[in-house]
Each structure stands twice: as structure tokens, then as C-alpha cells.
Write a structure and sequence with these properties.
This protein is α/β, with parallel strands linked by helices. Among the domains are: 242 residues, Dimethylsulfoxide Reductase, domain 2; 127 residues, Barwin-like endoglucanases (Beta Barrel). It has a 6-stranded mixed sheet. A 6-stranded mixed beta barrel has the order 25-29-26-28-27-31. A hairpin with a 6-residue loop joins strand 21 and strand 22. The structure holds ligand MGD (2 copies) and molybdenum atom (MO). Molybdenum atom binds next to loops.
Length: 817
């Protein structure tokens, strides 16, 4: 999408830097292992992040420059932010306690959270307070403590900080955890019924196979060029090469998206600006044409699927008298009926690869889209054929790339089992809740809820400890959440940035960034091309400590340190991760240096034997569905699920179904006229880097950008760079207008992750000064099946902001911070 000029400038600068580096690279061609030099004579140290690997130039103990690692084929400007995190004005410097809590104890004046001041305390004092509160709550019962602590968290393999947290609490008698995620919980709940597995994970049909066989590639709610910027480990950024190759080959591509993405522009793709939230209707309209024009692959449906007849009846309108014709779909999607007919014909004519992202399942009834998507691919009948079928994960991990000959890196710490200090009767509540139902839990303690065919009870939690996540960014309907947060007597947050979650906490513990501790991390989740040594580039600033050390110190206070750490230091664990990989490598005869050599070099790279690997997902199933059945009850793709039928959920019927959402552009009566697209940000990982200088690349009027179509902007007298107020019945925020024709009329985009910055914290309908989209979003479950987030079900309006502009303050230290 069009961005302020600084975006392009900065990107160009980085690309130039990268190509110069590539040309002068000292790396030899890859065969076996390759040990580059980790530290250059002028004090550069190789390091890495979720945004890419880089050389950090260190002078007098301070990072003074960053340049991308020469092995990165497409470096992203955000690596500067990964370093700036340590120095940002938003850095949490010391252990801090909210004044009322410190003076009056747990539960004191929770309504002042977010505006009370903080008092600096020593580490010793802070951990004494945390330990005492854990003991107090543990004595009430493990159901009193919520450690569902969700978020991207700790970078590196030495441990997952959230697993560490669970381990610590398990040793204290247990706590309430969370299941699934905000990413694809709708998909993760439904796919096991349809395909017997989550599907949207691991290696996909290879890019090479697509290049050689696919006639038409359809990116449906999918933005691989943006979403592959980052990774859960170090991104290899290889998908840019794939896009370039597709462009060179003149590959035909369609992008079904309310936004014309960079990928669409690069491939000169056809943009179908679908009405958001209508994708199921679009798929049904296409299915209707496949049926009526005799284009559906009946043999595939007979041999590889079950329940087709029921879906056939539904599409042709037998049970409800409404055939899902292209005209029916056109009314919902605003894509002309003739275009829908053409789509169906084109999909069936050549080899077609359907590629989806995850926004249509992050909506009310989000289970339906992945189901109809797989059903449509089954009707086309190309699943398991080279370059045909579907994929639900090309937008993460460069998942169509070849895999190197390398051992997987595994973490060494498990959460373990809960120590049974007391029994946990069912009526005390569930041991895990669906992650996005946290506010429902806080508002309904002791009440029953349904989830995936079973009934549970919401526990009555009193305290929470959050590490490596920002719930006051990632959760929906901020005002409802802030009100519900008062239920906690105590909120502990361990982070390195003064996020809204930290500002609304009672005890804040300063964590070390990836630059300030030791760890190990892999390059490429699928490609697995290298391991990086994450060495201490600088000493921890202020009083920050690494997550592992904080947990060790806390475990010591609780008298469980030996069990928690198994007597291992951070570096011991890093060595253990490496040793486990080395053992696998030795067994497979993969050359790998010993730990010391690796640590000195900073990197070990692995060879990729098959550069142009051909790989087709579900090929074996297609070859012989009896010998290689899917792990579903029938062994086939379940277009109709008997198990789901038994649940009797009206919000998740037993086959893919169009269900009208509570709010969307197609509603007969709309209170607010604009759909809010809160997709994932270009230049951040969610809310990370907000506080860094990377913000200058994208901020508009010093705020989070709100992209609005030219027509909608003109109708409201809004120009680019204006400060606007975005509002609905749930909340309101300011943002900077970006006016563009690359967004469909009727839709605005406010990317998720802008830090929540209320004018008057903890007051109903507080105005967010910076642009947190989740003040607007709706906090309802997708359905009783997944109980996932419905973040993308949201309508609002925008107006020019005319009042006195409040100063953005969320990037500064809090009061007394
Ligand atoms: N409206 C809307 N909302 C959404 C989404 C959407 O599409 N629309 N997407 C959802 C999705 S898919 C997701 S995954 C969530 C993401 O939600 P989160 O994962 O909570 O978001 P992050 O901003 O990545 O938060 C990670 C936090 O961990 C901190 N951190 C990073 N590294 C470390 C470390 O080593 N130690 C410690 N202690 N802290 C660390 C960072 O500073 C940051 O505050 O958001 C969800 N929310
Ligand atoms: N740069 C960057 N990359 C990321 C992340 C990040 O924060 N920053 N987060 C990572 C994480 S945790 C996750 S879960 C994934 C998220 O993966 P996704 O959820 O797939 O990613 P999004 O970028 O939010 O959305 C993809 C596209 O869907 C479009 N879209 C929105 N609503 C609709 C709709 O109703 N219909 C249709 N057809 N299209 C729609 C958006 O305009 C966008 O272009 O991304 C990962 N990658
Ligand atoms: Mo996610």
C-alpha cells in the first residue's frame, strides 16, 4: 500500500546496502559447513532477531551501527529497531511497583491502573513482593493464578519464557493456562475435523513445483511479502526470490483482498477487492458454478472426500430454498456475478493453486472460511497434484522453500506436570481456557462455557504474570478489557518496553533484550539453513536481567530453584540445545563443528542439497488414499463432519456454511459505515518496535496510520496527514490519515499493534491518542467450536479531529518511571 516517502527511501537504502554487501561477501559457496567470522576487526558482532540477522557495530560497550547480515537476500528496515529496542525511550529500566499496590497491597485501587505512578524498588524487594503474592494465591488454589501469558515472547531456543513461567508455577502447585492462539485458532479448531490435522504448518508444496506446474495462483486474504518479513526464528526472506521468479515467468495471479498489496503489484496481479467478511459467500458462489456448469471433479469427490452430497444440497438450495448462485454471492461480496462465473471456470480449467492467509478465520464464524476453502479445492480436484490444490501457509516461514540438511533445534525446558499440592475439582474451573476468552473468564468466574464439544467452567483468577506478550495490545475491545482487568488483585509484567500492559500492571520487571544475553537461534523455520550464536552484544542496560535469570532468582525466593533450573545456567542450556543438535548431526553424518568453534564463529551454515526441490503436499494421499489415509474418522477429506453435527452448534454447522456476522458492510442496518481491517503491520511485529526509531518510517501525523480510500476521505473532508478520530460504540482513537486508492471504498486499515495511549486511563471510552485499533474491535468468540478471536468483525466511522491535539505520551517513561 502507498506509504509516506520515508518508507520507500528507507527501504531503498537497505536494499542498496544489502546488494553491496552481497557482492563483497566473504562467505564461500555453501557445501557442508561454513563458519563465517563472527567479529570483524572494527568491532562488529554478528547477531540476529525475529526481523533478520545483522552486524552490530559496538564501540565502548554501545551499539553505534547496524548493517544487515550479507546472507539475507532481502533485509528489512526493522532490524534497526531490533537494536534500538535496547536504547529506546520506552525501555523499562528498573523493577517498578504501582504506588497504591505497594502501599496498600494486592487488590488496591485497581481503577487507578494506567494512571497511578510507579515507585522504583530493588530487585530483591520486587521479587519478595512477587514471591509473597504467588504464595498467597497458590494457597487459595491453582485456579486463582492465570499464567496463560500469550505472546511472541522470548527470542531464542534456550527456553520459551512462557514455558518457563508455567514450569515455575507447576512447581508451586499449578495455575490456569491458555490454549491455541490469536493467529489461527479458528483454523486450528476446524481443520482437525476436515483434514485430521491443523494443515497450516510445516513445509508446503514447493515454490519450484508451483513455478513449473501452476497456471493460476490465487492469494486469498494473503500477503506473503509483508508477513514473511518476520519469523518465529530468524527469517530467511527467501520468498522474495520466489515472487521475482513468478514475475519473470509471467505467472498469472489473483489477489482477493480489500487491499492491493505489494505482492499484487509486484506480480501485476488481478486485484479483486472483495467486501471484507464475505469470503465464504464468494467461495459458495464459485462452488455453485462448478456444480451447475459440470466443472466439479466428481471422481475426486467420490474417492477422496465424504459428505459431498450434503454440501451439494446446501449449495443448490435444497434445505433452505436459497441456491448460492453467483448473483446471490455478488450481492454479498460486491464482486460481479459474471466475474464469479469466470473465476470458477478459470479455477477448473488449468492447474490452480489456492493460497489463503488467516484473516477470514479471525472473524465471527471464522471456522467457516478454512472449511469452504478446502471444500472448494476438493471440488476443483487438484489436491495432491503438482502445483494444484491449496495451501494455508505461504505467508510465514518461506514454507515452499527447500530444506537444508540440518538437525532441528529443540528447546530444553518443559513446563512439566503440576505438583499436586491440592486437588483441582472440576467446579473450580478449567485448567486451560481458550486464549482469546480471557476477558470472558474475568467477567464470568464460576460460569460454564462451551468449547469444542465440551462444557467447562471459568475459574475465579486473582493474579496474573505476563512474560513476552502484550495483552493490552493483542486483545479485542480495550475498554471492556480494561474494566475486566480490575478483577485481578495483582498483575505482573516482565518485558523490556513500557507497553500498555506494563503501564496497567502492578509489578513491572525489566527484562533483557536479545542483545543483552546469550542464546541460540535457527535461520529459517522450513529452510533450516543455519544456526546463529546469540551472544551478548552489550551488557544489560540499567537493571535489566534475562528472563531465565529473573525466573531463577524468583525460584530461589520460592525455594524451588534447583527443580526449576536443574542446576543449569543460561549458557549450560544453550550448550545443551547445541549438543542435542550435534548428536542428531553425527547420526546423520552432517558436518558440524564443536560448540566452542560455533560460538566463536557466531554461525554455522548448512548445505541445501536440492536447491530446486519438487514437493507436492498431499501427493501420497492422492496416490493411494487407502494406504495413506488422512487422520479423519473416514480417512478422507470431511466436507461434512458427523462429529460436529453431534455438537449441535448453530454457530458452527456440520459443513461449511454462510452465516451472517453481527456487523459487516453487507448488513441491512448499519450503525457505522466503514469496515475496520486490522491486519498485521508492515514495519513491526505486532506491537514490537513501536517505541523505536522505526516508527518514523510509517507514522502519519506522529500517530499510527489509518489508511482510507480517496472517495471516503473526500466525503469526510480528510486529507493525507490529517489527524482523524476513528470511533464506534466500543471506543475511539486518533490516527494519522493516509489517503489511497489501494484500499477498497468502505474499508479503513488500522494495522494491529499501535500502543494503547489513553487520555484518561481507566475511564470508560477513553480516547486513545496514538491509534490502538483494538479500542474499536469486537470481543466475541468465532463460535463455540474454536472460541477464537473475531478481531476482524468490526465497523466504525472516521472524522477529521478538530479539538486540541493531545500529546502522544505512550513512548515516554511513565510517571516516576
Ligand atoms: N485487531 C487485531 N488484533 C490482533 C491481531 C489482528 O490481526 N487484529 N492479531 C493477533 C495475533 S495473530 C497475535 S499473534 C497477537 C500478538 O500479540 P503479542 O504477541 O502479545 O504482541 P507483541 O507485540 O509481539 O508482544 C510481545 C511482547 O513481548 C515483549 N518481548 C519480546 N521479546 C521478549 C523477551 O525476550 N522477554 C520478555 N520478557 N519480553 C519480550 C515485547 O516487548 C512485547 O511487548 O495479536 C493479536 N491481536
Ligand atoms: N510484517 C509482519 N508480518 C507478520 C506479523 C507481523 O506482525 N508483522 N505477524 C505474524 C503473525 S503472528 C501472524 S498470525 C500472521 C498473520 O497472517 P494473516 O492473518 O494472514 O495476515 P494479515 O497481514 O493480518 O492479513 C492478510 C491479508 O488479509 C486481508 N484481509 C483482511 N480482511 C479480509 C477479508 O475479510 N477478506 C479477505 N479476502 N482479505 C482480508 C488483509 O488486507 C491482508 O492483506 O502474520 C505474521 N507475519
Ligand atoms: Mo499471530
Amino acid at each position: 500500500m502507498s506509504q509516506p516517502a520515508t518508507h520507500a527511501l528507507s527501504r531503498r537504502r537497505f536494499l542498496t546496502a544489502a546488494s553491496t554487501l552481497a557482492a563483497s561477501s566473504a562467505l564461500s559457496p555453501l557445501f557442508g559447513i561454513n563458519l563465517a567470522s563472527a567479529a570483524t576487526p572494527d568491532g562488529e558482532i554478528l547477531s540476529c532477531s525475529n526481523f533478520g540477522a545483522f552486524w552490530a557495530k559496538v564501540q565502548a560497550g554501545r551499539v553505534v551501527g547496524v548493517r544487515p547480515w550479507e546472507g539475507d537476500p532481502h533485509p528489512i528496515a526493522t532490524i534497526e529497531g531490533a537494536v534500538d529496542l535496547a536504547y529506546s525511550p520506552s525501555r523499562i529500566r528498573y523493577p517498578m511497583v504501582r504506588r497504591s499496590w505497594l502501599e496498600k497491597g494486592p487488590g488496591a485501587e485497581p481503577e487507578t491502573r494506567g494512571r497511578d505512578d510507579f515507585v522504583r524498588v530493588s530487585w530483591d524487594k520486587a521479587l519478595d513482593l512477587v514471591a509473597a503474592e504467588i504464595k498467597r494465591c497458590a494457597a487459595m488454589g491453582p485456579w486463582s493464578i492465570y499464567t496463560g501469558s500469550y505472546g511472541w515472547g522470548h527470542f531464542g531456543r534456550l527456553f520459551n519464557s512462557q514455558t518457563g513461567l508455567r514450569r515455575l508455577f507447576n512447581l508451586m502447585g499449578g495455575s490456569v493456562g491458555s490454549s491455541s492462539n490469536y493467529s489461527k485458532a479458528g483454523l486450528e479448531a476446524i481443520m482437525p475435523y476436515v483434514l485430521g490435522q491443523i494443515d497450516a504448518e510445516g513445509p508446503q508444496t514447493s515454490h519450484q513445483t508451483i513455478l513449473e506446474n501452476t497456471d493460476l495462483i490465487v492469494f486469498w486474504a494473503c500477503d506473503p511479502l509483508k508477513d514473511n518479513h518476520i519469523s518465529t526464528n530468524v527469517p530467511d526472506h527467501g520468498e522474495y526470490g520466489w515472487f521475482e521468479a513468478m514475475k519473470k515467468a509471467g505467472k498469472k495471479a489473483i489477489f482477493i483482498d480489500p487491499i492491493k498489496t505489494e505482492g499484487c503489484k509486484l506480480l501485476n496481479g488481478e486485484w479483486l477487492p472483495v467486501r471484507p467478511h464475505s469470503d465464504v459467500a464468494l467461495a459458495l458462489g464459485i462452488a455453485h458454478v462448478l456444480i451447475t456448469e459440470n466443472l466439479a471433479d466428481k471422481k475426486f469427490l467420490a474417492d477422496y472426500t465424504t459428505g459431498w452430497e450434503v454440501f451439494f444440497d446446501y449449495v443448490t438450495g435444497k434445505p433452505d430454498g436459497t441456491p448460492k448462485t453467483p448473483e446471490w454471492a455478488a450481492e454479498k461480496t460486491e464482486i460481479p456475478a459474471e466475474t464469479i462465473r469466470e473465476l470458477a471456470r478459470r479455477f477448473a480449467k488449468g492447474r490452480t493453486m489456492l493460497v489463503s492467509g488467516w484473516t477470514p478465520q479471525r472473524q465471527q464464524h471464522g471456522e467457516q472460511f478454512p472449511w469452504v476453502f478446502v471444500t472448494l479445492a476438493a471440488m476443483i480436484g487438484q489436491i495432491g497434484l503438482p502445483g494444484g490444490g491449496f495451501s494455508q501457509r505461504y505467508h510465514l516461514d518461506n514454507a515452499g522453500a527447500p530444506q537444508a540438511d540440518s538437525p532441528a533445534l529443540s528447546t530444553t525446558m518443559q513446563a512439566g506436570k503440576r505438583k499436586e499440592t491440592m486437588p483441582w475439582p472440576k467446579e473450580k474451573g478449567a485448567e486451560t481456557i481458550p486464549v482469546a476468552r480471557i476477558v470472558d473468564m474475568l467477567m464470568n468466574p464460576g460460569k460454564p462455557y462451551e468449547h469444542n464439544g465440551k462444557t467447562f467452567i471459568y475459574p475465579d483468577v486473582k493474579m496474573t504474570y505476563w512474560v513476552g506478550g502484550n495483552p493490552l495490545h493483542h486483545h479485542q475491545d480495550r475498554n471492556r478489557q480494561v474494566a475486566a482487568w480490575k478483577k485481578f488483585d495483582t498483575v505482573i509484567v516482565q518485558d523490556f518496553q513500557w507497553t500498555a500492559s506494563a503501564r496497567f500492571a502492578d509489578i513491572v520487571l525489566p527484562a533483557a533484550t536479545g542483545l543483552e544475553r546469550e542464546d541460540i537461534e535457527g535461520l529459517g523455520v522450513v529452510t533450516r539453513k543455519a544456526y546463529f550464536a546469540v551472544r551478548k552484544v552489550i551488557e544489560p542496560l540499567y537493571e535489566a536481567k534475562s528472563d531465565y535469570v529473573i525466573f531463577q532468582m524468583l525460584a530461589e525466593k520460592l525455594g524451588i530453584e534447583p527443580e526449576f533450573s536443574d542446576g543449569k545456567t543460561e549458557l549450560d542450556r544453550v550448550k545443551q540445545v547445541y549438543a542435542a543438535a550435534l548428536e542428531q548431526a553425527t547420526a546423520k553424518k552432517i558436518p558440524m563443528p564443536d560448540f566452542d568453534a560455533f560460538w566463536k564463529a557466531g554461525i554455522v551454515e548448512f548445505a541445501t542439497p536440492e536447491k530446486n526441490v519438487r514437493r507436492t503436499k498431499y501427493a501420497q494421499f492422492r496416490e493411494d488414499p487407502l494406504l495413506n489415509p488422512l487422520p479423519t474418522p473416514s480417512g478422507k477429506i470431511e466436507i461434512f463432519s458427523k462429529t460436529i453435527a453431534k455438537f449441535g452448534y448453530d454457530d458452527c454447522p456440520p459443513h461449511a456454511t454462510w452465516l451472517e456476522p453481527v456487523e459487516w458492510l453487507g448488513a441491512k442496518e448499519k450503525k457505522y459505515p466503514l469496515h475496520v481491517n486490522s491486519n498485521h503491520p508492515d514495519y513491526r511485529l505486532h506491537s514490537q518496535l513501536n517505541g523505536t526509531k522505526v516508527r518514523a518510517i510509517y507514522a502519519a501525523a506522529g500517530r499510527e496510520p489509518c489508511t482510507i480510500n480517496t472517495r471516503d476521505a473526500a466525503a469526510r473532508g480528510i486529507k493525507a496527514g490529517d489527524v482523524v478520530r476513528v470511533f464506534n460504540d466500543r471506543g475511539q482513537c486518533l490516527a494519522g490519515a493516509v489517503v489511497s486508492d489501494d484500499i477498497r471504498p468502505g474499508v479503513i486499515q488500522l494495522q494491529e499493534g499501535g500502543w494503547y495511549d489513553p487520555v484518561k486511563a481507566n475511564e470508560p471510552n477513553a480516547l486513545c491518542k496514538y491509534g490502538d485499533v483494538n479500542v474499536l474491535t469486537l470481543d466475541i468468540p468465532t463460535s463455540r467450536l474454536a472460541m477464537a478471536t473475531s478481531a476482524h468483525t468490526c465497523m466504525a466511522d472516521v472524522e477529521l479531529f478538530k479539538g486540541e491535539l493531545p500529546k502522544v505520551s505512550v513512548f515516554d517513561q511513565p510517571k516516576n518511571g
